[in-house]
Amino acid sequence: MLAPDTRALLLDALRPPPGHSLDHAVATTFTLDLETALMVPLAFAGFRFDDQPDPIEVMEGLRGMGERLDVFCQAGAIGVARWPSDLLALVEDVIHPVRRPRPGHIFHPKVWVLRFVDRSDEPAYRLLVLSRNLTPDRSWDTILWLDGRPEGEPRPGNAPLARFVAALPRLAVTPLPPARRAAVAALADELGPVVWDLPAGVREARFHSIGLPGSPPFAADGHFEGDRVLAVSPFIRGGAIRRLFQSHPEQAVLVSRGEELDALHAHDRDVLEGLDVYELDPTASLASDDAEGDSPQTFLTRLHAKLFVAERGRQARLFVGSANATDAGLEQNVEFLCELVGPAASLGVEALVGDDAPFRKMLTPYVPSPPEERDEEAITAGRALEDLIFDIAAGARFDTKVTRHVDGWVPSVSTDTALPRFPDGTSVTLAAHNRPAETYSLAPGEPVQVELSPRELGDITPFLQVTARLQVGREVIERSTVICSRLHGAPEERFREILARQVDTPEKFMRLLALLIGFAARTGTETGAAGDGTWSWSPGGGEGVLELLARALSERPESIDHLEAIVERLRESPTGRTVLPHGWDDVWLPALKARRSMVGDAS
């Protein structure tokens, strides 16, 4: 089970093995938080998350890793940030929203496939199968972590995983650039001969994708049949529970959320008869294991784990992944499960929820709560708005075209097809994600054609916020999402402007210098006293900077090129020029001249 500090522990699972670096990673998630996505390339770059990384660290981590990461998520399920960061520009090409597989259902898998290489370019692979979305939620989740290396010929057991990865680009709302599409296809092809290191006691791992167009149906009735059956699922439906437990209900254990069990008890209570039913105990100690001393503890609040166990005799099959115990989760959504086969003593029902199992200590027998009044009209309206948001995000390709005017840069947003019809009384607005208060109304059944107000180059973004509202009685129901549009006409200088905004003091400039050259974590060569916020640029204090630049020329000369672009952007404004410390040109210009000589000699 994942511990509560998901940012630290999930991202720990993404760090390369010792002596390796990331070559390429493909991830899938249902919901996506853009700020959380910013942290992923930092994990690949080896950053630790004991403290909140500063923007300079984020910027440098993303600069090198963004081209190696592709994240596929449900279109319409990208969360809206209250204070979006400028640095989201550095993950614009990483995020690929996908269409729903069929009306009323969703793209729901949570899988990471990573390719690492060592210094001799020998590959190593990692597979993460999770119940966790790429969001900052505080909930109990599962993660299966498998490392592997290629050996010999392709193995039939890897084919479902390879087909799943290969299918992802075809699901995207906007076609991937050729280079990214080729990288995903290459990663899928390489998975065939990989031999996975299985957990202790596990004899075999089998992969199951659900709901992909053209894929065979997942026969849940057969897969989950056993003498004893366990289902852990935050969301449940009566039809699926009946199918899962129909053979031996007296030997079945169900763990879910209290409110889901209450809803099932109220409308289909017979389905729970004879089952051993549990929910999370709200009084259990669910604090993070890594909380120490007087530091504030983070508490897990909700069940989000999904796993199924089918036990027959002395053998058990444990399924982990994204599917809930619902008809949609087991049949119609796009989902991914990994099946582990091994002895019941380690993978069976008793091992997971028996009296001595750690997870069992956090459960309490389910007792129905008194029925609560539900505003069915508001619930129905909310679902209708969610469907509308999904249809808008996936049904049309949004384009943002940027033109330069005398008073700034003007984005114009358009779609290639008309929007769907809206439910009666519904209003839909559009805004740039970084200017949510500046909204523009959209018309049902019409293509989008909106010209936004002029803005600075660094404020240009392809991320758009779409919000649907509907008044039900005295309550206004609202649903929002971020849409990733295709950006046209924005000059390359936009990124330099964004990067320069992060460097607004001489101290941050020096931090950037150290990170660019790559010595910050390994040496103490930054000029100035650690932690006191002061920097020396007197003739007697410049040797450390000169040494950094000299080492950059010999070990990472390309870092001088990137630094030059930022320095030039800073020189363009009076404020930026104050960021360059006094005496900077005395050490910078000789280094820049040497770099240009190197480039000239190479050509």
Please explain how this structure is put together.
The chain has four domains: 6-197, Endonuclease, Chain A, CATH 3.30.870; 220-365, Endonuclease, Chain A (2-Layer Sandwich), CATH 3.30.870; 376-488, Immunoglobulin-like (Sandwich); 503-602, no CATH class. The strands form five sheets. The chain has an eight-stranded mixed beta sheet with strand order 9-16-15-14-10-11-12-17. The chain has 603 residues and is of the alpha+beta class. A hairpin with a 2-residue loop joins strand 23 (463-472) and strand 24. The radius of gyration is 27 Å and the shape is globular. The chain is built from 18 helices and 25 strands.
Which helices and strands, and how do they pair?
Layout: H1 6-12, E1 20-29, H2 34-44, H3 55-65, E2 69-74, E3 95-98, E4 111-118, E5 123-130, E6 139-140, E7 143-150, H4 159-171, H5 178-190, E8 194-196, E9 204-210, H6 220-223, E10 228-232, H7 238-245, E11 252-255, H8 258-268, E12 276-280, E13 302-303, E14 307-312, E15 315-321, H9 327-332, E16 335-343, H10 344-347, H11 349-353, E17 363-365, H12 376-395, E18 398-405, E19 408-415, E20 427-432, E21 440-442, E22 449-451, E23 463-472, E24 475-484, E25 486-488, H13 493-502, H14 506-517, H15 543-555, H16 558-571, H17 574-579, H18 584-602
Parallel strand pairs: 1-2, 2-3, 6-13, 10-11, 11-12, 18-25
Antiparallel strand pairs: 1-4, 4-5, 5-7, 7-8, 9-16, 10-14, 12-17, 14-15, 15-16, 18-19, 19-22, 20-21, 20-23, 23-24
